[in-house]
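Worked problem 6 (solution included).
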Amino acid sequence: MPLATVNIYEAKTHLSKLVDRAAAGEDVVIARNGTPVAKLTHLDAGGHAVTFGVLEGHIDVPGDFDAPLPDDVIAEFHGDPAEG
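Solution. The predicted structure is:
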């Protein structure tokens, strides 16, 4: 199936209709003085649906997971001021 080709003026005038055509799966080529310069095409949303709970029973999160870190561990993140 050949691609529909429209000139820039027509594309500006009928952009909403062309977007509808692209959303329906039709590619539309936009040309300037008969030379193709762009293609309007369907945008695939990509990705996949998120399914919550698929790891239930496979991961053990401790009850104190979000407890504050001990002072010695926090000190490791900040480094020794004497070395700076």
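Discussion: The radius of gyration is 28 Å.
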